[in-house]
Amino acid sequence: MTVIQAPLGAIDRMRRTLVPGHVLVTIEHLLIVTWRIPIAEMRGMLPPALEPVVDGNETLISAVLFRNRDLRPARIGLLRLSSFQMNVRSYVRDPATGEPGSVYFHGLYLSRRWIAKVSASLFNVPFAYLPFGITVADDDRLEWSARDRNGRVDVSAVEADAPLDSAMVDLLTNPHTGYFADRSGALRKWSIWHRPQQLRTVRIVRARLADLPLGESREAWNALYVRSVDYEVYLPSTPAS
After folding, report:
1. CB atoms within 10 A of CB 77
2. Residues 6+ positions from 142 with CB-CB distance below 8 Å
């Protein structure tokens, strides 16, 4: 298994002074599973204002699965919540500068129904309920799996050595701005900040995501694992003009 320190990239310039409305969370056992998508197919999945990051003749889309621990308001420190979460995201360019470093969320899923409902209502973010869990064994050999009881999610991975390209690692692990379509269809965005992550390479044994934007027939191209990282999430979202 290859272990590296991820580059900081542009996210290093994105930290803000914490104010009410911002959220702190520790993300654990994060797996980024990435597929290649034809450019024409991806453009049909994106709002017209967003242009995908192109890698050769293809673009990239990832399922990012993790556990939220101690999710809490930044300036209060109380109301610490936990849940599993999955984000399905593709990689896009900033509409103003043309630079990479942003993602578009095709799907946002939380494993606890009431947290999904409250988050969607409070932040106008289209979180959906998906009752799945993550299991990790990390003794002599990393074994990671995520499943839900309805069979929509069935992903497993084991440790493996793999070559890593620093530009691709930066793209996959350091997006600082997230775009999404709100419940009315309007394009909105928020931003995040985190410290450098220690990455480990893994091999995907199985990646089935039925009835989700990825479908279930694509062969995973790349997978990265992060044991733990602290995030600052700068909510509420704002209109993406």
Report:
1. 10
2. 1, 136, 157, 158, 159, 200, 202, 225
pLDDT at residue number 216: 64
> What are the C-alpha distances in Å from 158 to residues 15, 31, 153?
33, 11, 17
111-127 as b/e: b if 16+ CB within 10 A: bbeebbeebbeebbbbb
Q: What is the DSSP secondary-structure string of the chain?
A: --EEEPP-GGGGG------BTBEEEEEEEEEEEEEEEEHHHHHTTS-TT--B-EETTEEEEEEEEEEEEEEEETTT----EEEEEEEEEEEE--TTT--S-EEEEEEEEESSHHHHHHHHHHH---EEE--EEEEEEESSSEEEEEEETTSSEEEEEEE------HHHHHHHH---EEEEE-TTS-EEEEEEEE---EEEEEEEEEEEETTSTT-S-PPP-EEEEEEEEEEEEEEEEEE--
| Domain boundaries along the sequence of the chain | 3-239
pLDDT category at 78 given cuts 50, 70, 90 is low
Q: What is the CATH number of domain 3-239?
A: 2.40.400.10
- pLDDT at 151 > cutoff 80: yes
